[in-house]
Amino acid sequence: MDRNLALNLARVTEAAALGAAKYMGRGDKVIADQAAVDGMRKMFDTINIDGVVVIGEGEMDEAPMLYIGEKIGRGGETDLAVDIAVDPLDGTTLIAKGLPNAIAVVAIAPRGNLLNAPDMYMDKIAVGPKAKGVVDLNAPIQENLKNVAKALNKNITDLTVTMLDRERHEGMIAACREVGVRIKLFQDGDVAAAIATCFDHTGVDIMIGIGGAPEGVIAAAALKCLGGEFQGRLVAYRSEEKARCIQMGVDINKVYGLDDLVKGNEAFFAATGISDGDLLKGVTYYGNNMARTHSVVMRAETGTIRFIEAIHKLDLKPEYAK
Ligand code: VTB
Ligand code: MG
Ligand code: MG
């Protein structure tokens, strides 16, 4: 895939972030999400790809834009056939309340290479490169924690595990406390949390817990680029969800590894901060109608990670991109 696609993907997440950031703290997650979707969708139209959304805002009848199966890009004969996974605003509640860690994300890979994950829950485990190969979603949590501590040459009490603050995690939290690890709970946004495990300065060593399956595929694309490890298993709480898995051809019992979630080594990932986060600063506004964004773009093939700080002159931008 053309390596310059990376910069275009940053444009796409920047547009989503600039759209949503205006609504920080307004208490309205729907309007913020809509603005992110609009910005992202329109910026996609400027890119020469033959894309299809495999992870999106929902089924065609429930999402007018970026729905699953939607064709994106110019779609010319010479254009690259790709799968697209998006979450224009991961952390809608975060932005509505002005809380940290809301991001806009996109992942792409050659056609057929991203898992078509149903919109349901996924049990996940993510670690950075130094702990690659020592975790197993089928193993007891405490065993994984001990193995990660060992791989990082840390005392178990110095290990930091992060997970969504949800009642369904009570058992996991108790297991973590029993072995004495430090726990960092977060409200929303487990894509950003999974990525944080790959950067030392975040202080986060491992992410565990049950979050959205679509977010799992997107996080896997990032962790593939970063050399980390990600495993996920779908969780069906309702019988319809089991039926949906069968219909979509995904295995409810299988632990999906990085290569199952994102096939091959040609994936790209991009994210832009909307509110301030561990990895990316959020959108900031200056005088004279200017804004600044912080993004990261990654390419699996070469493992290049680029941080892009951009200054946007909002007066000069098309309406959708500001
Ligand atoms: C996570 C997280 C999202 O949903 O996937 C989570 O990354 C799923 O769990 O940001 P809940 O249904 O308990 O929220 C979000 O928090 C929101 O999409
Ligand atoms: Mg979303
Ligand atoms: Mg989300």
From TrEMBL:
Substrate binds at D90, G91, T92, Y121, R166, E167, R168, D188, G189, D190, G212. The keyword Disulfide bond does not apply. The keyword Protease does not apply. Pathway: Carbohydrate biosynthesis. InterPro entries: FBPase_class-2/SBPase (IPR004464). It catalyses: beta-D-fructose 1,6-bisphosphate + H2O = beta-D-fructose 6-phosphate + phosphate. Gene3D superfamilies: 3.40.190.90, Fructose-1,6-Bisphosphatase, subunit A, domain 1. It comes from the Bacteria. CDD domains: FBPase_glpX (cd01516). One of its GO terms (cellular component) is cytosol. GO terms for biological process: fructose 1,6-bisphosphate metabolic process; gluconeogenesis; glycerol metabolic process. This is Fructose-1,6-bisphosphatase. The lineage of its organism: Bacteria, Bacillati, Bacillota, Clostridia, Peptostreptococcales.
